[in-house]
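I am writing to request your help with a piece of structural work I have in hand. A protein sequence and the structure tokens that stand for its backbone fold form the material at issue. Please examine both parts with care and let me know of anything in them that strikes you as inconsistent. The record follows directly beneath this note.
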Amino acid sequence: MMSCCLNSITHLRSVGFGQSVPEQSLWLLHWFANEIDININDDISLTFDPNSGDYGSHQYRNDEQLLEPPPWGYQYYSLGNIHREGSLRLPHHVFQLEHEAGNRARIIIRVREPNHGWRTSQIIDRVYITQHYGTSEYRGTDYDPQYTYGITTSLLRAIRRFSMDSDDINLLMSLRNRYRNQVYITQHYETSEN
């Protein structure tokens, strides 16, 4: 199972993927926070179809039981694989960092499948950031549970406030580095379903 749930910039600062959150994971999470729609009720809607391979997306079966099994009518998707073909591609700066870092960072989302009769959009009820094991660990394509974190809507909203320019991202990286020893992490998502 995942390590914990992050719900603020303070929590993000305290987390280490190895020694610290890698830059490509922050860029991927920043891109994602700005790509989705969040309404006033904190419902997160997709702006693309993860079944089409957009943004390196594909169904994630959770074979290694990294996450809890999805309830009926829900599906997990993984985003961020730069080697997957889709009509929508990740921005160049995210793609380039992922290429240089070995294409390990991913976002996993749990999506309520749309009711096709009512043509509703796909709603995300869980967001996770993770990474594949390093190639030196010989674990194939499994995700590393030690570096898998739930991401709350509050954190996604906070990350959105940073612009895509390098000054804001550098500030975010600086804050992460300065406060990485502080640990303010919640342990689990609430288990109640809507």
